[in-house]
Design brief:
257 residues; mainly alpha; globular
């Protein structure tokens, strides 16, 4: 029973001991699943930390602002992992590599150039959960602007991959399997959700959405969460974590879509 369970787990994570001197993470499918799972877990873990350890009734301003809390290490590690996975991802065509690499670099910039402070002063007793404070200097404005541009570009590139690259197939639409057609709908839906989330954030930034409405509903955090969950779900599916082609279809065709 234990051997069967171990074999099943090894198959799921593509762990293969039949080849000597090979590293585990050599499969694109495994890499895609790791990117997807990491992305989907990030907001969930941060929300859990908020409720369990910060004694707050709702999340803070944005996902990026967790950098300044005791959850900063969680934010930094997970986002850095996603960045590295994206950089080493090659995909099937060179455009996959270039787009994912640029997205990964943008994710690293999000970490290296943090957003604005949670509090206007150091050691703010009204925000005890804020444990990090960056002293203001001449580069503070640039840092925050560069952070916003990097975060936006990171998500836009992932939306592009989901809508245009993940939906590609070596078969014409009428010859694609039922699951491939379903996956394509999900990829496009995830991309649309990412772009829609960024539009809402942009409307809030431009004050098209009244500030009191935008801030009262934590729209930055929830839109970022929607975008990150959408990109993570798309990558999880691309890694065949869900909605894999049916066995009968794979047998009848030389290669999956």
């Amino acid at each position: 029973m234990q051997n069967q369970l171990e074999q099943k787990v090894n198959t799921i994570i593509n762990l293969d001991y039949t080849e000597d001197d090979k590293i585990w993470l050599k499969s694109s499918k495994t890499l895609r699943k790791l990117i997807g799972i990491s992305g989907m877990l990030l907001p969930i873990i941060l929300i859990a930390i908020t409720f369990l350890f910060f004694d707050l009734a709702r999340p803070i301003e944005s996902i990026s602002h967790y950098y300044y809390t005791r959850a900063g290490s969680v934010f930094t590690v997970i986002l850095s992992m996603i960045a590295i996975f994206l950089i080493v991802y090659s995909g099937k065509k060179s455009i996959d590599f270039y787009i994912s690499t640029i997205a990964g670099i943008c994710a690293l910039f999000v970490v290296f150039f943090p957003t604005g402070n949670l509090s206007s002063i150091c050691c703010d007793t009204l925000k005890a959960y804020s444990v990090t404070y960056i002293e203001g200097n001449a580069s503070a404005g640039f840092r925050e602007d560069f952070h916003l541009v990097s975060a936006g570009l990171f998500l836009l590139l992932l939306a592009y991959m989901s809508f245009f690259l993940f939906t590609k197939s070596n078969k014409s639409p009428e010859l694609q399997g039922r699951k491939k057609r379903l996956r394509n709908k999900i990829y496009k839906g995830c991309a649309i959700l990412i772009v829609a989330s960024l539009i809402v954030i942009g409307l809030g930034f431009l004050k098209v959405i009244p500030a009191h409405v935008y801030n009262a509903n934590q729209l930055t955090f929830w839109m970022e969460t929607l975008a990150v969950e959408s990109f993570g779900f798309a990558w999880l599916i691309k890694g065949e974590g869900l909605f894999k082609d049916d066995t009968e279809y794979l047998v009848a065709n030389e290669s999956p879509d």
